């Protein structure tokens, strides 16, 4: 079964994203159901979005689920065979979905398909290291992984696999970062393919999903979770020793910079403390517990 407007839903996990989410929603056809998982649990956000857009259902989880668990939670409300995972700081171009629909008609079985970022300087995909073939910029091409801010899951096909039968598409141990890489790796391991459609483009602001007034707290959270997720991902897929070797130089650098900035710059000191703490907690096998200190109401 190919993708169609009637057989596609959108899932957006947001967190204090009022500054950008309207542009995201407005770029999507109003014929497509949109499920917003608002991790701030703000009831005003829910009522505003649902009153403004007839095709939007805003869900407030009982806690801040992060990206992985937040997407899984949103996917439990999806009744279509395909789900478009989007970040709130992404906008679609006029023919983004139409191009993907057209391309999907000619593709063999795939687990995931994605548009391409309009910013070619920062591609939203990684090709296989052993792939020496030339990429055709007009036809879909297979990739190893895609960034999680814009990708369509073939839910019906993936649910045929034990790994994804219970809506556990994303590993919920990841709060943020690398949950998409983990998903792509598991899709590849099960011999389902991942494609980029180069004629389908999206615009990604990058790091703008959360309101600017929370910038400092979000920066601390990102540094903590990047190190935690990096260690966990490597441990899960490559082993404990590789995880240490891969992350320890960054940890050591963070410790040195923490000591330096303890004297020179307290804001940077906090950043490097959180970076080191993320690695240390992952090393000890602790969960990705850190949450930004923001009033969620």
- Computed CA radius of gyration, to the nearest angstrom: 19 Å
CATH topology of the largest domain: Spore Coat Polysaccharide Biosynthesis Protein SpsA, Chain A
Q: What is the global morphology?
A: globular
Provide the residue-averaged pLDDT.
93
| Proportion of strand residues | 15-25%
Describe this protein's structure:
The chain has helices at 21-26, 43-52, 68-75, 96-104, 155-158, 179-189, 215-238, 240-264, 266-283; strands spanning 8-14, 33-38, 56-59, 82-86, 90-92, 110-117, 125-126, 141-142, 145-146, 150-154, 193-204. It is an alpha/beta fold. It has two domains: 5-204, Alpha-Beta Complex (Spore Coat Polysaccharide Biosynthesis Protein SpsA, Chain A), CATH 3.90.550; 212-283.
Short description:
The protein has 297 residues and is an alpha/beta fold.
